[in-house]
Each structure stands twice: as C-alpha cells, then as structure tokens.
Amino acid sequence: MGKEKIKVLLIEDEKEVLELYKLKLTLDDYDVITATSGKEGLEKAFKENPDLIYLDIKMPEMDGFEVLQRLRSEEATKTTPVVILSNFDEQEMIEKGLTLGANEYLIKSQFTPEDISSKVKNWVKE
Amino acid sequence: MKKTKTPKKPILDLLPIEERWNSLVKNTLDFVYIVDRQGKFIFVNRTDLIYKKEKILGREAADYVLKEYRPIVKKAFNRCLKTAQPQIYEAEIIAVKGETRWFRSYVSPIKTSEGILALLLISTDITAAKKAEIELQKVHNELEQRVYSRTVELQKLTEKMAQNLVGVEREKNRWEAIFSNVEEGVYISDSNKRTITMNGACEIMSGWDEKEAAGRSYHEVFSCHDNQGHYYPDFDPVEKVYQSLEPIHYDEHLHTSRDGSERWVGVSYTPILDSEHLVQCVAVIRDITSLKEIEVAKSEFVSIASHELRTPLTVINGYLSLLLSGDLGDISDASKRMQHLQVINKIYNETRRLTALVEELLNVTRIEEGRIKLNLREVYLSEVIREVVSEFEPLVQRQNSVLQANFAGEEKPIVGDCDKIKQVLVNLVDNAIKYNPPQVKINIKIRPYNDRVEVTVEDNGVGIPAALQGRIFSKFQQVPGSYTKENKGSGLGLFIAKSLVELHHGSIELRSTPGKGSEFIFSLPTVAR
C-alpha cells in the first residue's frame, strides 16, 4: 500500500477560483477537499482532519477570520497549518489574519496555482 | 469856703444842638448830604473824595454816580419822598483821582409840619467790601465757569463713554453671537489648563455644559483619543501646547461625548502668550465625522473594488499559467482539446466578467463625480421594455424562465436618456435572473401614475432578506448565498440603477418578501424638469 496522500482543505466561495486551485492541487497529487462557505469549511476541517487548510477571507455569513478563530479554539485543528488566500491586500487584514493564528497570508492575484501548490510542502512534512 | 453843689446836667445837654450836629457831621467818616426835593445838593459835610463843596452844591446828586446807577438813585429819592420811608441803595461814583468807589447810601426824609422838605443822605464807602465782594463774585463766577466747563467736559466724556460702552456692548454682542453660533467648537482654557469657557458647539460635542466643564481639563471634557483613535488616560493635546508654547495648526482626534457617542474632530490649538507666559489656550474644534466616514467609505470602496477586480484576474492568470506550463498537457495535443477549450472558455468568461466590472466601476465613479451626462429626448418606456425583453430572451429560455411585459392604459412619453433607462431595466432584469433559481417568472408592468410613469419589475423568486433590504441600493451589497451562482454580480447594479433613476428626477423602491419574490418599482416624471 502506498503512502497516504497529503490532505488539503480548500475553503473558497468563488467557484472559479476554487476549481482552479483544486485542478492544480489534484494534478500535483494532493487529496483535495473543498468547501464553498465558512460553515461547510469548519465541518469538513473537523471531520476530515486535513494536513493543510487554504482559507479565503471574504465569504458571506461566516468570513475567513471567524473560521480561523474557531479552528484555533478547537483542539483538533489548533495546530493545523492554515494559509490565508485572499485578494484583500490591506496591511490591517494581513496583520489580523496572522494575529488570529494563520501561518501565512497570500494575496491570490500575486501567485500562480503552481506557487500555491508548491507552498504545501513548506507546511506539511511528509 | 463851702463849695456849692450844682446839679449835674448830661454833657450832651450842655452842647447846643447845632454844635452836636456839626461835630457829628464833621467827625463822621461817612458822607452826609442833604438834597432838596429835586435831588440837588444843599448840604455836604466833606468833599475830600469828590469835588469841592462849593462846586457840588446845587447840583443833582444823581449826576455824581456812574451813569448806570442814576435811575437807582432817582428811584430811591422818589420813593422816599412818596412814602416817607427810608431807602437804601448802592452805587459807584467817580472819585477825584478818577477811580471809582462804591457807596451804600441811606436816604431818609427830613420832615417838618409842612411835609418833607429835603432828604438826608448818608453814604458809606463800601469800596473795600464791594471789591472783596466783586472779587468773591469773580472767583465765584470763575469757579462757576470752571465748574460749568468741567461739567460740559464731563458731560462730553460721559457721552463718549456711553457711546464707547454702546460700542463695547455691540462688539461684545457681536463676538458673543459669533462665539455661540459658529459651527466650530471654540474652547478656551486658562494658564492652569482649566476650562474657562466654551461655546454651544463644544457643549454638543462633549455633552458637558459650559458651567459643568469650567475648571476641568480639555482632556476630561472631551475624553480625547489620539489621531489613530486610541484612548490614553494621559493623552492631552492641550498639554503639548502648554509645554511648547507653540500652536498646533491641525490635529485630528477622536472625541467621546459624555453619552458615549464618538466623533472625529479636526482641531487647531493656539496659545495666547503674555510676554513669555501662556495665559490662555484657544482650541477651535471642527466635527469631521462625516468627512471621516466618506474617507472610510472611499477606502472601503477601493479595497472591495480591488478585491473584486483581482478575483477574475486570479482565475485568468491561473488558467493561463497552467496552459503555458504544460500542466494541462501540450496545447497541440488533440486529445486534450476538450479540456483546453473548457479552460479557454473559463478565461473568456472571467475576462467578460472583468470587463463588465471595470465598466460598472467606471460608471460608479462617473456617477459619484457627477460626470454622467443625460442625452435627453422623448422616450416611450414600453419601447425600451420591449427591447430589453427581446435581448434577454436567449438567457431566459436557457433557464426555463419566463420574462413578460404588460402595458396597461394610454402611455405618455417621459423625457430621459434612452440608454440610461435601458441600463436600469437591464440591471433589474439581470438581477432577477442572476439571483434566482431557474424557472423564475419575471413580469414587467407599466402604468401612468400622476405626472409619472411607474415601472415594476417583479419576480416570484427567493426574495431579499429583510436585513438587507435597507441597504440593497448601496454599493457592494449582495444577497448571501447568491455567490456560488454561475453569473456572479459586482454588487453595483442596483446602486447604478438607483443613481440613474435619480438623475432623471425619479425614484426607486423595493418591496420584497423572502421566499415569495421581489418587486422593484421605479417611476419617472412625464414632464421635463
């Protein structure tokens, strides 16, 4: 039996963006789980126990910051690496994300899917 | 020898009457005259002051006084003759050396059985007394004159002072009017940094009234935060002025009113110096809360707009990079053609979305800057509606939806910009399709309403949550849960629609029941304005 794949959870409400990252991460042989809202993201994070979470900020009802806070307050996801992927580039947003416990804050439009995919290995030791 | 005692007689009796008279008249210092009934001298005891005795006898007594006193003399004589009562008068006479002397004269009648024969005149030199009196009078007059002129001066001074007071009062009133009515808060503290006075604007801003605030520090009255909006218990901008003695031309703070409400203020602080000491500090405070709100709204707009622009760019760039890197196989590989076409289609869709978004952002900017120009002409709304319905037909059919229009009654044209009105309708219909599940039924109604034409775009879709209804016409407002749909909106459509309707002096409103559907009703005037 082969090694278990690295499990990546993508929480993103923009369908096109979600599909783009899913495509690339799947091509790179990661086990990709997707969620299109904060609520669904939290459920999947607790249920699937991913190795890494890519988290969007601007989402209706429950935004990425709230998801992050809840992830960090639960034992199961307290130390799970969380990389914020957002198109907000304001300094205060970046600071807020990092303060709430994100491991990294990336501005989507500045990175290719390849960049995003290659980040996985920075946070997950095989 | 025996002396015989003779009885003593009073000495005066020993003297004959004439002797007695002569002695009296000779030795008296007074002048004694007798004048006849015509007022002519018939006797005079001395003439040392005036003329020789011989010369004045037979002359009229009145001639020897200064001209102005003659009537007085004559009057006294006549009265005495008439009433037989003594008279008294004062007159000035010209004395021998040319000087004038004052005499007080008593006139008494010399009566016999035949009546008044003559008048006895006794004149006393009162020059010294008169001089003193005149001197006194002069002094008195001078004094009076001085008092008078002083009084006049004083009166003038008083008048001037009164005028000044009126001026001062007017100035004071003017200053007070400015002070209390000016929109800016004006605050003054003393050399001990304690509040002396502040105007009504300060009272409103701080929630303290002037009397309560008196004696407290600026910081206490305004509960001041620094220009980042942070509150420090010891932060007091006035303190800086007292230390540096330099004015602060402009500073922004967050003030908290007593009731807890916050407002942004722009303040200038000016020290009032007496030589080198600060005696007062004047703060002029302007409420810039609404400016700050605009600033915040603008920066939020920029933030969200750039976020929205980056999203399609992320997708476009992402797929292009996958195509170019060969992640999706060689572009010339025919077996991958379908996947490549799908990706290219996605890129194309995102490009269209980006274009539409850029257009809408530019429209919003134009609207906000008032740069939209209306190309006005007569417009029949039913024609515009027909156009819109036919343009949406393909999309409507794909979604198995229904889009229909009803025209009731005779239609009056409106005056407006055809393209802009079409834009309004497109945005409303587009929303009804975009934010509802397939098979939605959309109905457009038109009817005359007073001097207006009213257009209703109604659907039987999901409706709009009550919480969102109030701000649905604001920028970047979208119904949560509508995000995952195929055609994502910018959140600007309704803002643009409302702005365009208002440019036509029309109005737009929403009636919606969640779960049952929405109605957007706008009306435009049929008369040009």
Can you tell me about this structure?
The complex is a heterodimer of chains A (126) and B (529). A five-stranded parallel sheet of chain A has the order 2-1-3-4-5, sandwiched between helices. In chain A, 43% of the residues are buried. Chain A has helices at residues 15-27, 38-48, 64-73, 91-99, 113-123, and strands spanning 7-11, 31-35, 52-55, 82-86, 104-107. Chain A contains five helices and five strands. Chain B is 44% helix and 25% strand. In chain B, strand 17 (507-513) and strand 18 (517-525) form a beta hairpin. The chains are: A alpha/beta (126), B alpha+beta (529). Chains A and B meet through helix 1 of A and helix 10 and helix 11 of B.
Attribute tags:
heterodimer; A: 126 residues; alpha/beta; Rossmann fold; 5 helices; globular; B: 529 residues; alpha+beta; Beta-Lactamase; Helix Hairpins; 4 domains; 5-stranded antiparallel beta sheet; 15 helices
